[in-house]
Design goal:
The chain is an alpha+beta fold. 43% of the residues lie in helices and 21% in strands. The chain has a five-stranded antiparallel β-sheet with strand order 1-4-9-6-7.
């Protein structure tokens, strides 16, 4: 595929030249990615689309400037297959929207979009994105712990999350390998590895009659207690470890009238209180105790402890050793 590119000149194009550049670019999009609608959002337009497919891993690099790209029901009616799009933002900024969910993507962030439901992608100046086609059957298989999987679309997978970091590295490595003679099996392996990385971040288990909500909650609580000393413990890390999406994890805790971050903090405070009540509690250094259980700020630890137990850590210790 020969990409079309209009110069990123600081001088605005006149309307006829801008429209001609845009129509040539959109024709390339249709050839490479299928039916889309698009609108330029500025007085000038620049766009390049390159086919970077490697075997079964179908992907393209889009470099564009102030553009809205979308699928409506007319475009969806022409779809040849049910697939999802994984969008990796390489540079610049964009936002994606589907089913009233919106995510802002910066460099390294990823979002997944369902190709058979309307969505919109808006890019800022000098945006670079990689778009990958993920066959629906690879994402929509049943979860390992029972229940069917619902895909959380237009949700930001952060560049610093485990899924975002490793998926981004895999995609960029695949881009660099494009000139190599990869076999079909190697391409399929790349696709399988990518789906395996993204699936825990976007698949939210839908409970069936076996009561999976309780099982997911129990697994999450066990993982949290085992990693409380890790100051960087996050909902994203927990969700990936137990095989649900972050959105699904929040939903499970909401059914218990809990918030994930607050539950983590309260469990840390409970273990701190237990240490202060113990036989060695009088000799415990409060700053060391707070650091041991994931609190990086001593004053924040003291405030949080008093909010939970009604006493400062030192007063709580005195009360339990009188």
């Amino acid at each position: 595929v020969m990409p079309y590119f209009a110069s990123l000149s600081s001088q605005p194009l006149d309307r006829p030249n801008r429209d001609q550049a845009f129509e040539q670019w959109l024709a390339t999009v249709h050839r490479v990615c299928g039916e889309f609608g698009a609108e330029p959002r500025g007085e000038r337009f620049a766009g390049r689309l390159s086919d970077l497919s490697v075997g079964s891993l179908r992907m393209s690099l889009a470099e564009s400037d102030q553009l809205s790209l979308f699928k409506n029901r007319q475009h969806i009616g022409h779809a040849r297959e049910h697939c999802f799009y994984a969008v990796l933002q390489l540079s610049g900024e964009s936002w994606v929207e589907q089913d009233q969910q919106r995510a802002v993507l910066n460099a390294g962030d990823i979002a997944v979009l369902d190709g058979v439901r309307p969505f919109e992608v808006n890019v800022s100046a000098q945006s670079r994105q990689v778009s990958l086609i993920l066959p629906a059957h690879l994402l929509e298989s049943r979860g390992a712990h029972g229940g069917s999987a619902a895909i959380a679309c237009a949700q930001r997978i952060g560049a610093n999350s485990a899924a975002g970091k490793w998926a981004g590295l895999l995609v960029q490595d695949a881009m660099s390998q494009r000139e190599s003679a990869l076999s079909d099996l190697e391409g399929e392996s790349l696709l399988s590895a990518l789906v395996s990385l993204l699936k825990p971040a976007v698949c939210s288990l839908v409970p069936d009659e076996t009561g999976n909500y309780d099982k997911i909650y129990q697994r999450a609580c066990a993982y949290i207690d085992a990693h409380l000393r890790d100051e960087s413990l996050t909902p994203e890390q927990i969700a990936q470890a137990i095989g649900v999406s972050v959105r699904g994890l929040y939903r499970v805790f909401a059914r218990q009238s809990l918030v994930v971050a607050k539950h983590i903090k309260n469990r840390r405070l409970d273990f701190c209180a237990q240490a202060l009540r113990g036989a060695q509690g009088q000799g415990v250094n409060l700053t060391s105790l707070s650091l041991e259980w994931g609190f990086t700020d001593a004053s924040h630890f003291s405030f949080a402890f008093k909010s939970r137990f009604g006493l400062s850590p030192s007063a709580y210790r005195r009360t339990n050793h009188q």
